[in-house]
Input
Amino acid sequence: MPKITDEKKQQRRDEIISSSFRCFAKKGFLETTMRDIFEESGLSSGAVYSYFENKEAIVNALCAQRTEDYINHLEQKIRDVDTDIGELLAKIIESYVGGFGNSNFDEKSRVNAQMWSMVVIKEEVRKNMLSLFDRYVKALTIPIKRAQERNEIDQSLDSKMIAEVMITMIFGLDLRKTSQETFDIHGFAKVTRSLFSGNFILKAT
Output
C-alpha cells in the first residue's frame, strides 16, 4: 500500500473538519453524531477516527482552525496598514466581518455562536482560544505603541489594555452580527473610528 504523504494527510484532516462544520451548522455541536460526520464526509468510520479520536477533538480542531485563520488575517492587516489607530481599527472591523457577506453566512453565524458557548463549557477549547486571544492582543499592541510614541494616544494608558478593549469590541460585534444579519457594520466602523480618533465628543468652543 503506498504511503500517504503529509500533504494528503492534511487535506484529509481539513476535509473532515469542513464536513463537520457543515454538520454543526445544520444540527449543532451537541446533536451532531460521529455517524453524521461519516456520512457528510463520505469517509469510513476508521478513516475519520484515524485523525480524530472523538467529536470533541473535531470541535477543538475546528475552533482552533477558524480562530487561527483570523489571527493570521489580523496580523497581515496590521502589517499592511500604517495609519492612525481609529482608522486602523475601522479597517480591521470592516475586513473582519466582510466574510459575513458570503453565501454561507447562516452557517458561519450558527457555528460562531456555538464556538463561544464551547469556550465556556470546554476547558480545551477555552485554553486554545485564550492562547489565540493573547496573539490578538500582542498583534494589536504593536501599532498602539507606535501611536503612543507619535503622541497620538495617551501614553499613560496601558497599551495592552487598549488592545484588549479593541479586541473586545471586535468580538462583541461578531456576536451582534451573528444574531442580526442586517446589522450595519459600516456604521459601526464609522462610530468606532470616531471614538478612537478623538472626534466623538465635541468640545465646547
Remarks:
- The chain has two domains: 1-53, 61-197.
- Residues 18 and 41 are 8 Å apart (CA to CA).
- The first helix runs from residue 6 to 31.
- The radius of gyration is 20 Å.
